[in-house]
Amino acid sequence: MKYKFVIGQKYSRKDVKSFIGHPEPNSVGGIWGTGYASYEGCYFIFANLGTAGRTGHNYPNNLTPDNLYWFSKGTETIHTPSMQQMMNGVNEVYIFTRDDNTNVDFVFQGLGYVKDFEDTKPAHVVWGFTTDLTNVPEKFRGERRRRFIEGARKEVTLNKYERNPSARQACLDFYGYDCVICNINFEKVYGEIGMNFIHVHHEIEISTIGEEYAVNPIEDLKPVCPNCHAMLHKRKPAYNIEELKEIIRNDSL
Fold this sequence. Notes:
Layout: E1 10-12, H1 13-19, E2 36-39, E3 42-48, E4 62-63, E5 67-71, H2 81-87, E6 93-98, E7 105-118, E8 124-130, E9 149-150, E10 153-155, E11 159-161, H3 165-175, H4 186-190, E12 199-202, E13 213-214, E14 221-224, H5 226-232, H6 241-251
Parallel strand pairs: 3-6
Antiparallel strand pairs: 1-7, 2-3, 4-5, 5-8, 6-7, 7-8, 9-13, 10-11, 12-14
């Protein structure tokens, strides 16, 4: 890591510019007031989480313990030269996040490496974190990433709707394998044969969309047991998670 920022420590944009030796550390206008900036071959992402940026743009960036689901500037795609430079695995990308746009400080998360992306406008990139680009897992070095895209319609005898296994896994990495409705864990009940068994429920039914949409694996997907999954779909449109929880609570009274 060229610039020795400390993971978990807070930095303002001015702090970052001063730390890297920028000739105008006290100016945060222009490119340095946007979602990312570059300096001497390195990139610096400033991601707002669940809040609009100072420019008024409000992208659904999402931070998990292992990933940042990040949206680029609105006019950009993965083919934009600056995005190509950020995603090439050679240039260092320093990732800073904040969840309050009234606070000038961002938390440093680490160097970013591309784990997934969507070829959309704005571009959607899933960043993993490391402290050294030479430590990036082999499968994420230079190969074209799978897209976090759900609902890509395929014409076969009937219309099928594609479910992306990487989105499913991201959901399970975040929530684990307990049913979010009844809390059953199949490994605890059935032992080894129940290990890592669970259904994943789409809170937005893919078949009702009829087009591609970018799935948020944390907000849109939830792990549920087969019984609860079947009960969710006893109605069209399906019950939501909280409705089914309420039914269970009322029935147990």
